[in-house]
Amino acid sequence: MARPPFYERLFRALLRLFPSEFRGDFGEDMTADFRDQRLEIDGKPREVRRLWIRTAMDLLRRAPREHLDVVWRDVVYALRVLRRHPAATATAVLSLAIGIGLNSAIYSVVGGVLWRSLPFTESDRLVIVGGVGASNRQPDLMLSAAFLDLQRRTRTLDPVAGAATQVVTVVDPGEPAQIGCVAVTQRFFDVLGVRPALGRGFTQAHYDAALAHRASANPDGPRPTPPVIILSDGLWRRRLSSDPDIVGTQIRVAGGERVDIVGVMGPELEALGAAMPGQCWFPEVPDPAVGAWRPFIVIGRLAEGRSIREANAELAVIGVNLDGSRLPREPQTLQALGLLDDIVGRVRTQLIFLFGAVVCVLLVTCANVVNLFLAHAAGRRDELATRVALGASGVRLLRQSLTESLLIALAGGACGFLLAVWAVPVLVSMAPPNIPRLRQIAVDWSTFGFTLLVSGAVGICCALLASRPTRQVPRTVFGPVQAATTPRTTRLRHGVTVCEIALALMLAVAATLMVRTLRALNAIDLGFDPTAVVSADLNSIDNEMRAAQDFQTTIVERVKALPGVRAAGIGLGPLQGDMFIGGLAIPGDPRNFGSVRVDAVSPGYFEALGARLLAGRFFEPHDAVRDGPAVILVNQSAARMFWKGSDPIGKTVVISKSQRPQVIGMIADVRGSSLEEEPGPAIYQLSNQTRNFFAGSMLIRVDGEPQALVPGIRAVIRSMSREQPFRGVSPLQERIDSAMAPRLFVLRLIGLFSVLGLILAVVGVYAVLAEFVNQRVPEIGVRMAFGATASDVLALILGQGSKLVAIGIALGLAGAVLLRGVMSTMVWGVHTFDPLAYLTACLLLLAATVAACAVPARRASRLDPAVALRSE
């Protein structure tokens, strides 16, 4: 046969732009028509060119319409098919809505916190520079002299700025309140690439005025508040009622000073969170001669074309001889860390773990939907075989299956997106306060895109898996004896069910380990009794040491006199942070003890805290004499370290040349800044006998309702100072609950995911066994006709289900063991291979799946043999 001319081959190639059905129906006629037109103008180049242009334009115009027409016919047919099975369709849509909706909601949280860029210009170039030491207690602090030296030497960071946190008491307008402020060096806002929403930023004149103001103040007095300030968006809205004319006015701070408001920042700076907390900013000049020990958080922007690796290489060289860069506690090395990583680093593992868990829920959901599709396809074997016999190709059947699957997946995705819109605010309200950037979490276009992508991927995967039974020869269906499903389909359904069980078990193990972790945390010996104890923040507005001590001592004495107060005292408070001191020595002991936790407290503090006295006595009022004998209390760990567990009472500790206090008591170890960190050595000094005095909390042990004390405490404070802020009281138990909140948040979500996974796995097992019973009804009838009892049939069905459950549990245990490394970052006080947790999860899943197996097994055991044989 002669080969067609080139122009005909080219035209046939262009016809491939059309769907295969269209080419089969009209391709030959269109080719013949084009051949005739081409022959008529043979030898006329201009006419040939016009024909090709006209033909190409016509094909390009008609081909998309034909494809859309085919898609539309597939969609209409798929809708008719799905409408004939409303229960199965609704079940698939609901299952996918839950799976996709939870994934979209968690994606919004994880993406909003971890992956969304910070609202600053080229935020990926922003870094935090800090000292990284052995204990990492103060990783981001650098002394002012070191900051100036670093600023002069660095070439990879341009610009560089410093920030120091400070508390300021605002007394007018509004009620007195302490607000966190940030003292910033020049170019701080340039580093971030932000400008005030109202007013202007700090100028050189503002920094000169701040330096002059500080130089004119009493060098032995409190650090003065600079004369100008920039407010945060939140402070402007809450305290100043969003006054648009606020720039140029003044606020009054404690001590009678008035500060000019020069600007209001936008809400983007709230993204800094705990990395640099502050509700206002004022200028700071780091001068080595004045305030050389001022600690700074150093922030910089990578110079154009420089990487963070280059910056760290340079910082390693600079840090060797950096003036004043070493904090007195321990050696440190300078290191740059991305600003976003610094902000979210503490919660990254938790959120990624949650995202992985919710993906497991989606996989279990998909497995259920695949099982549903397989059962649905098995019921349509006659229809599909008829279509094959009439000429439908495998590609055509696959495309139809894909259309049906995508319609269900998109419907589930749409419902899931609505679920995510509702669920995200709920998740944010449940989230502990330690998760940064909570206000940046929202359902937006990225969530919509993620939902659409997941829905499409789920639809395609389910269609590809469930389309296997459509690839069959008609005679295998229309033969004299047929099975409802093929062996390949049966194996696939069993494999999918096993995967469901394995994933559900992994979620159950994770939830059980988290429950065990919370039980371990609840069983921690706190070293004190938080029952009936309330805390009141009490920071004196007078920063002069003696005045602050006298002020707080007087308040404590007056509060003790209030009705219902059993004890009261001042100290840093448990779970509120730690202060450390180095250079301690024991007479006659040459050892170097490193850093030891220190707290300055008043008499009555340990009685209010409910600390356990193990030896000696607590502080008493007569000990708190300013020039009297110095005395201290130590905890068990300190006694063990200093004197190797012997009685510490009467022993001496050398704190400095002028401080050699004597131990008068030993208390049980009290948890410091974290529930999960084992308490280390600690010493407790009287607040008026030390310069390490840090105003903290007043703890009050009460007999009645704590809130009834609020008016009395407020009256005491107002009688002493109208400018003293008072925020009320809060139960000490709230600190403990707050410390446990992150793990409780993870537990709630993991618990929800594991329950959903368990339910879906049970449904999957039930569906498979129900189909197994339906397939073998004739066989069961034959068995019973030949003498099989109901218990024999029951054992047959239960045996089939038990095999699936056993394999699923084995794979789930293997998966849980492989993921122990991930779980080790989430659990505490429990081994990741805790036998009780694994056994509990297995028994829970086993009980649920056995119950699911029992229903179809019981139905099979009650079959009437005559009815069963007639069904054959």
Describe this structure in words.
This protein has 872 residues and is an alpha+beta fold. The chain contains 26 helices and 21 strands. The strands form 3 sheets. A 6-stranded mixed beta barrel has the order 3-4-9-6-8-7. Strands 14-15-19-17-18-16 form a 6-stranded mixed beta sheet. It has a 4-stranded antiparallel beta sheet with strand order 13-20-12-21, sandwiched between helices. Strand 7 and strand 8 form a beta hairpin. It is globular, with a radius of gyration of 37 Å. It starts with 5 loop residues before the first helix and ends with a helix.
Layout of strands and helices, then pairs:
Elements: H1 6-15, H2 20-40, H3 45-84, H4 86-115, E1 126-133, E2 142-143, H5 144-153, E3 157-172, E4 177-184, H6 188-192, E5 198-199, H7 204-216, E6 228-231, H8 233-239, E7 250-253, E8 258-264, E9 280-283, E10 295-302, H9 308-318, E11 332-338, H10 339-344, H11 348-379, H12 381-389, H13 394-430, H14 445-466, H15 474-478, H16 487-522, E12 533-537, H17 545-560, E13 565-571, E14 580-581, E15 596-601, H18 605-609, E16 613-616, E17 631-635, H19 636-643, E18 662-667, E19 682-686, E20 697-702, H20 710-720, E21 730-731, H21 733-775, H22 777-785, H23 790-818, H24 820-824, H25 835-861, H26 865-870
Parallel strand pairs: 4-9, 6-8, 15-19, 17-18
Antiparallel strand pairs: 1-10, 1-11, 2-10, 3-4, 3-7, 3-10, 5-8, 6-9, 7-8, 12-20, 12-21, 13-20, 14-15, 16-18, 17-19
Helix pairs in contact: 1-2, 3-13, 4-11, 4-13, 4-14, 11-14, 11-16, 11-21, 13-14, 16-21, 16-23, 16-25, 17-20, 21-23, 21-25, 23-25
